[in-house]
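Much of what follows relies on a compact textual record of a protein's fold. A record is reproduced here so that you can trace the correspondence yourselves:
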Amino acid sequence: MRALRLESWKSEAVLAEVPTPEPGPGEVLVQVGAAGACHSDLHLMHDFEPGLLPWSTPFTLGHENAGWVHTVGQGVRGLEPGQPVAVVGAWGCGRCPRCLAGLETYCEDPASAPVPSGGGGLGLDGGMADFLVVPAARYLVPLPDGLSPVLAAPLTDAGLTPYHAVRRSLDKLSPVSTAVVIGVGGLGHLAVQILRAMTAAHVIAVDSKESALRLAKASGADLTLSPGPNLVDQVHAATDGHGADVVLDFVGSDSTLAAAAAVTRQLGDLTIVGIAGGSLPVSFFGLAYEASVQTTYWGNRSELVELLDLAARGLLTPEITTFPLDEAPQVYAGLAAGEITGRAVVVPWVDYTP
């Protein structure tokens, strides 16, 4: 079968022929219907030195995956060949208190997990391939009726990550609240839709690209703004001088974090989602009183079930562009160049119609 492989750190991924895997006991072989191309894959290719992560190369990229059950290993129950499924991305040990609570993203015994602090496409072979082995049935979520793998795949990360971030701040998102979304890319445009679907808060979207601002408006943003010296004043003007109750930074650079801190209201939440490498100095007078700053990582299985239900009901639709698997290397080149609007989705089986 074909697979997009990261052969070594500090290198481009290459398309290669590899043996089609067979599922072992408890495992499930998924025929990949779609795999989302994530900006974090570029960090895997370009930014990590050998030994920095607890993984070894080579492995197949692709941690946003959906498709159909192809074959089940011995002992697997409740899944049938041909059944459409989405793949839960983070694979924990399944036994520690966090995993038993369904929070496998925060596994406390990663040494016992299928791969430490990772999953398919993150240390183990992922879904930028014709087939993907999933090590346990609990990492699969049956797709609701009417939701295709092509639409479901990007939701497993680009949708689930902002869903988790919004959900943890729901108590601060009343009809008179304001949420600011910084960065309206693959995750940010879905954050706007999630805010619209789950809350009645006012939504302000910030991005430097006109195409992204148009996408934000189409996704339901009440106001779109460009970054710059007037941004903070514009947000305060739009909020009667109060600032935003919730700020979601999907970039995470020094400049976006500084702006995020400056527009966060007293008692507000500032959630850092983007991994651009910026930092935010925190001091008593550096933030509004009782403002909370937090990072967040992905989301859990139960949240993915909820998110897929929203999508199946038409309340959430990712903006996607599809590409065949043979063009996957070019997809990442376009992603690195900032040429992708919304989410790029690789569809291995070209005769598949979403």
Summary: The chain has nine helices and 18 strands.
